[in-house]
Amino acid sequence: MQIQRILQTVDTQNLVIQVPASFVNRQVEILVITLDESASTPAQRRRVPPQQLAGRVTEKGDVMSSVPAEEWGIH
Q1: Half-sphere exposure of 47 toward its Cβ, with a 13 Å CA cutoff?
Q2: Can you tell me the distance from the alpha carbon of 65 to that of 70, in angstroms, rounded to the nearest whole number?
Protein backbone atom coordinates (compact mmCIF):
# COMPACT_ATOMS: atom_id res chain seq x y z
CA MET A 1 0.00 0.00 0.00
CA GLN A 2 1.29 3.44 -0.91
CA ILE A 3 0.01 6.69 0.54
CA GLN A 4 0.36 10.18 -0.84
CA ARG A 5 -0.60 13.01 1.49
CA ILE A 6 -1.18 16.48 0.08
CA LEU A 7 -2.19 19.56 2.09
CA GLN A 8 -3.75 22.15 -0.16
CA THR A 9 -5.99 25.19 0.16
CA VAL A 10 -9.10 24.75 -1.95
CA ASP A 11 -10.12 27.90 -3.84
CA THR A 12 -12.85 26.41 -6.06
CA GLN A 13 -15.01 23.29 -6.11
CA ASN A 14 -12.54 21.57 -8.45
CA LEU A 15 -9.35 19.99 -7.15
CA VAL A 16 -6.75 18.39 -9.43
CA ILE A 17 -3.94 16.28 -8.01
CA GLN A 18 -1.05 14.51 -9.68
CA VAL A 19 -0.46 10.96 -8.49
CA PRO A 20 2.71 8.86 -8.73
CA ALA A 21 3.14 6.64 -11.79
CA SER A 22 2.67 3.57 -9.60
CA PHE A 23 -0.96 4.61 -9.04
CA VAL A 24 -1.82 4.46 -12.76
CA ASN A 25 -4.20 1.64 -13.71
CA ARG A 26 -4.82 0.89 -10.03
CA GLN A 27 -7.90 1.29 -7.89
CA VAL A 28 -7.36 4.07 -5.33
CA GLU A 29 -9.35 5.44 -2.42
CA ILE A 30 -9.60 9.22 -2.24
CA LEU A 31 -10.42 10.94 1.05
CA VAL A 32 -10.94 14.70 1.25
CA ILE A 33 -10.94 15.92 4.84
CA THR A 34 -11.07 19.49 6.11
CA LEU A 35 -8.45 20.28 8.69
CA ASP A 36 -9.37 21.47 12.14
CA GLU A 37 -10.05 25.21 11.91
CA SER A 38 -7.82 26.00 14.86
CA ALA A 39 -4.90 24.26 13.17
CA SER A 40 -5.34 26.05 9.89
CA THR A 41 -5.84 29.58 11.22
CA PRO A 42 -2.77 31.50 12.35
CA ALA A 43 -2.47 32.28 16.05
CA GLN A 44 -4.07 35.58 16.92
CA ARG A 45 -1.85 38.29 18.30
CA ARG A 46 -2.54 39.41 21.84
CA ARG A 47 -4.49 42.64 21.84
CA VAL A 48 -2.86 45.64 23.48
CA PRO A 49 -4.87 48.62 24.79
CA PRO A 50 -4.15 52.04 23.29
CA GLN A 51 -1.21 53.79 24.94
CA GLN A 52 -3.31 56.92 25.63
CA LEU A 53 -5.45 54.87 28.09
CA ALA A 54 -2.46 53.72 30.17
CA GLY A 55 -2.85 54.75 33.81
CA ARG A 56 -6.31 56.30 33.31
CA VAL A 57 -8.45 53.34 34.39
CA THR A 58 -9.08 52.59 38.06
CA GLU A 59 -11.05 49.74 39.63
CA LYS A 60 -13.83 50.74 42.02
CA GLY A 61 -14.07 47.47 43.92
CA ASP A 62 -14.49 43.77 43.19
CA VAL A 63 -16.10 43.67 39.75
CA MET A 64 -16.71 39.90 39.79
CA SER A 65 -18.67 39.62 43.04
CA SER A 66 -20.69 42.81 42.55
CA VAL A 67 -23.41 40.84 40.70
CA PRO A 68 -24.87 37.62 42.16
CA ALA A 69 -23.83 34.47 40.25
CA GLU A 70 -27.43 33.60 39.32
CA GLU A 71 -27.71 36.87 37.35
CA TRP A 72 -24.75 36.00 35.07
CA GLY A 73 -26.96 33.63 33.05
CA ILE A 74 -24.55 30.72 33.56
CA HIS A 75 -26.27 27.58 34.81
Answers
A1: 2
A2: 11
Considering Cα of 2, then 20, then 23, then 15, what sign does the dihedral take?
Answer: positive
57: which DSSP letter?
-
Distances (CA, A) of 22 to 6, 8, 19, 25, 28: 17, 22, 8, 8, 11
Integer-rounded Cα Rg, in Å, for the chain is 26
Query: Each residue's pLDDT tens digit in the chain (75 positions)?
Result: 888 888 888 899 999 988 889 999 999 999 999 887 665 566 778 888 888 888 888 877 777 777 777 877 776
